[in-house]
Structure formats: structure tokens, C-alpha cells
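Render this sequence as a predicted structure.
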Amino acid sequence: MTHARISRRRFLWSLAAGASGAALAACAAPAAPTQPGSQTAGEEAAPPSQEPITITMHIQAGWEEAVPGMYVRRPQTFMEENPDIKIEMVPIPGAEYDTKLLTLASSGTIADTMHTSDVWTQHTRMVKLGVLRNVDENLEAAGISKDEWLPAAINTLTIDGKMYGLPKTCHPGDAYIWINEDLFNEAGIPLPEVSGVTHEQITEWAEALSQGPEDDRSVYGFVPRVVGIQGIVNGARQFGTYENNEEGTESLADNEQWRQWAGWVKSFYDRKQAATDNALPSGGADGLFLAGRVAMRPNQRFFYRRVNVGMEEVEKPFSWRVIQYPRGPEAKGWGASVDTHSVSTACKHPAEAFRFIYAMADQTFARYVAEDQGYLTARIDDLETVGDMLYPFLELQYQCMTEEEAFRQPANARGLEVETVYKNELDKLWLGEEELTPAFMQNMKAAVDEILTKPF
């Protein structure tokens, strides 16, 4: 195979551009028309051998314990189903994961397969550097349709007309709000429906639910979650705008919809119905929600399990529910946070590696993830796969997943740098250091555009 290594020059250039942050971000499967990836056009499957072929996979250290359905149960059942293949996980500490992958690719020692994420354009960068292998021929040879997965996932993984990797998950990021039902009942507010809540209602409820003097709140009404690109982009999209133009070369952050979103978020800080992270105690707003001191808290799907477990540990447990984040009348789709399992171009057994990454995106995988984590994956048939264990949050996840659109990512794959600019600039608003004016939004757009005009 070609592209087994990245040239030193391209590698250093990539590091200078900033490797993107890795996201955490998870029934028997029906048989494919043929053995997935058993033979690809132009390639012959490995000849029979007494010794199984070893396929390695890079994941973040700790994931085998944290998400065993993904990285223990499914690999084990795959090996039972495919005794000719042995799977070995090769963990990398999370803080150095992206940079380490590029280092290993440069030296030609990268694993056969790996987890990647395109939330911060890491996956796209790896594709453009020639690290990842496209799967189109494998899918065709195995008779597997891309229609098995959500369109937003396929669109995200299709780069220059070819698809790279198979979807591990495709989730909508910060699309949910956790509600303390006890506080709603005490305030005499009817409990909201799962979806259909408006921005105006959240504003009204935050006023009624906040308790204590402004400089010493005992309960915050609504604490926004604007710590990363998922919360920022999804927030603006619900007011009817995208983050960038279609080409990913210009920010749209100076338009009226962006300003409306920023003003809505800023209002909670201005009225002291929320506090910025640096003003909160250890554990932040998530910890305060578990302690009964935050009435409404936006978050991602991982928080469902944390709240479930937390209610068994806190001194005063309370009733709670999850609703959908408000969507305006012109709302755009939730930004699709897509994680993958991909085959490297350095892999010496790509057909066998494809068989494995397909198993890490099939119905059995989806079932294990739902059982262990309470997540859905990226499959069109996720709800059918977990039909006997459905509960409202799984149904809400699927609703949001079907409303997703691919991110309008930076064309130069500098996603992490763009996120940093947005966070730094918007923090000035939340902290009261800047006023929300057209000039402020124009300056933020200009700062993002400066990143978007850099070379790959």
C-alpha cells in the first residue's frame, strides 16, 4: 500500500497547524451479503494460516474500562466469529492522542486501525495527510450499503468523493437540557414536554427558578454550556444560521442570527441566573446540577449516565428529566459529531481490518453500546436494534440524530484553532469584559477568518 508514512516536512507542518482534539465523546447482527471486506477489488485476502492475523487498533487509554461495550465486548465477539483474526488494542493517553497518531504515521509504526473524530477536523486532517484508507471498494465488494448509517455521518466521512472509515457514533452534541423536576414543581411551573420548548420559555423559567441574592445564588436558573465548538455551533444553528460558508473558508459569525444567540446566552450571565465556570466551585455546573443548585443544565448524552449514577450518591436525590434544547422556527440541523474506526494506509491486511471496523459499526456493536453506555451509535436502525430496551432519552437521541447535518468544517482542517478563537472571544462577553455590539461580532468573525485563510 502507498502512503505508509507522512513525510517529515508534512508532519511538522501538520503539528504547526495544530492537531485537533479527540472527542469522547459510545441481538445478533444480520449477515452481510458477503463476508465484509473478505476481498476487495485489486486485493487478495490473506491465504489460510494456522496462526491468526493480528489487527491492531489505537484507542485512548482507559476506554477499555470506560466503554467496555465498544472496546472489550465487541472485539471479543468478533474474534469468536472470526477465529482467523486476533484483535489487539493499542492505547494512547488521551492528552497526546492526536499528536501521537501523527508521530506514529510519520515513522510508519501506526496501528492497522484507529479511532478518529472529525469534531475538530482530526479525521479530515488524517485523510489529507494520506494516513487513512478509503472504504468504498470494501463496501462494494461486501455488498454493504452506506444507507446503513445516518446521512450526516456519511457526508462527514466523505472527502473529495471518497468515504474514509466507518461511523462509530454520530451524535448531536449539546442538544439536550437536564431539568430538575423538583425545582420546577416548587416554583409552580408545569413540567415541559420532551421537545418543542422555546428560547423564550427557557428565559422565563430561568427567572422564576433562580433563588437567593444575585451575588450569592443558592440556585441558578439556567447555566449555559458553551465550553466548545459543539455547544457554540449548535446554539447559533438553532437561531437559523450556520457557522461557516459552504466552502469552509469564511465565518458567518457577524450575522444577525449569531448575534441573537450570543445575546440570549449573555442575558443569563447578565441577570446572574448563571455563573461562568471560573466562578463555580469544584465540579462546575454539572456538579451543581447534581447537588440541586442548577435548575436547567444543557449537556451532551454522556451526562445521562452521570446523573443516573449521581442520584444514587448525592445527599438529596431529586426527580429529573431530559428535554431537547430549544429550536427556533428557522433552525438548522444539529452539528453531527462523528467518530469513526478507520483503517490506516500502513495496514498490511486491509481486508481483514475492514471486517473488524465493520463489526465496530454493526448492529451488535450498537446493542452493546446502548446496554453499557445508554448511547445510540450512527445506524439508521438504531431504534430497532434496541427496541426491547427503549426509554425516553434513547428516543430523544434518535430524534436529534435524524435532525443532524454535517458541520461546515474549516477547509484547511484547523478546527481546534477555530474553537480556541470562539471560546476566547465569547468568554469576554460572558465575563462582562465586552459589550455585544456589531463591532464585537465583526471582530470575532475577523479572528476566525484569519485562521480559515491559513494553508492546510
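Summary. DSSP finds 19 helices and 13 strands in the chain. The CA atoms of residues 123 and 183 lie 42 Å apart.
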